[in-house]
Amino acid sequence: MTDNYLVTRIDDDVAVLTLSRPAKLNVLDVATRVQLAQTIRHFGTGDLVRGIVLTGTGRAFSAGEDLQSVPSTYDEIRQAVATFHDITRAILETQIPVIAAVNGIAVGGASEITLSCDARIGSPAAEYFQPENHRGIIISNASSFLLGRLVRNHAMRIVLGSERIKADEALRIGLLDEIVADENLVARAVDTVRQWNSDPRTTALHLGLLRPRADEIEAAFAREDDAARQSWESGAFSEGIESFWASKNERRR
């Protein structure tokens, strides 16, 4: 049974969802991913709030999947990936704006979650890192579609090269829409939500027009699921995770 690593508050008619496991860089275990999707759907109807802001606590937005509980079978991989996919699905189904307030490093699946948000506002400490290609893991969250939609050809170096993209570079290529001081980050995201959703009737309609279509997202999920299966069957997944833990243990010595 996990602790509650998702903290929710209402700030000026905006739901602020905070990933709160700072000692572990806000890594996302399965229970937290399920809770996050459920909470987004709870507020996403627009009946309770004007929008949603997603952020983290401490020096990380989130370090992504909790590799302490790494899947050991393909069925477990499939189920784990499904919980990431469902967060993307929940965000894109909302009737209200969803903004990521990226307060620090965003790794892997957590980085990918921000791609489905309607805007990404970062602090100067914001940083994007997609290490999957060097860990035998396949990108998910429909990022195979969403990342290229945002940054075009930069997607190749971000994924294949696993380059760390600092805040200024993220702004330049379109991963971030704005950089603001850390102390103003969430407030700026809340203000943006309220500005964008002055009339929920038309805002919901425009979100439907501007966001990617559901069939595009589901097709990306299917391709990513198939690639994850192939990675498992080739042994790349197991070898990548073993290498990750070996290098981490070596650094501790």
Please give the structural blueprint.
Blueprint: E1 6-11, E2 14-19, H1 30-44, E3 51-56, E4 60-62, H2 74-93, E5 98-102, E6 105-107, H3 108-115, E7 119-122, E8 127-129, H4 143-151, H5 154-160, E9 164-166, H6 167-173, E10 178-179, H7 185-196, H8 200-210, H9 214-234, H10 236-252
Parallel strand pairs: 2-3, 3-5, 4-6, 5-7, 6-8, 7-10
Antiparallel strand pairs: 1-2, 8-9
The helix fraction, in percent, is: 40-55%
Quickly give the structural class: alpha/beta
Q: How does the major sheet shape up? A: 6 strands, mixed
Order of helices and strands: EEHEEHEEHEEHHEHEHHHH
**Number of DSSP-assigned strands:** 10
Distance between the ends: 31 Å
Oligomer: single chain
- The poorly predicted ranges are none
Strand order of the largest sheet: 1-2-3-5-7-10
Please state the overall shape, judged from the principal axes of the Cα atoms.
globular
Tally of contiguous helical segments: 10
Task: Name the average pLDDT.
Answer: 94
Radius of gyration based on Cα positions: 17 Å
Q: What is the beta-strand fraction?
A: 15-25%
List keywords for this structure.
Enoyl-CoA_hyd/isom_CS, single chain, lipid metabolism, 6-stranded mixed β-sheet, 253 residues, fatty acid metabolism, 4-stranded mixed β-sheet, alpha/beta, ClpP/crotonase-like_dom_sf, Enoyl-CoA_hydra/iso
Report on the architecture of this protein.
This protein is globular. The strands form two sheets. It has a six-stranded mixed β-sheet, with helices on both faces. Strands 4-6-8-9 form a four-stranded mixed β-sheet. Strand 1 and strand 2 form a beta hairpin. It is an alpha/beta fold and 253 residues long. It is built from ten helices and ten strands.
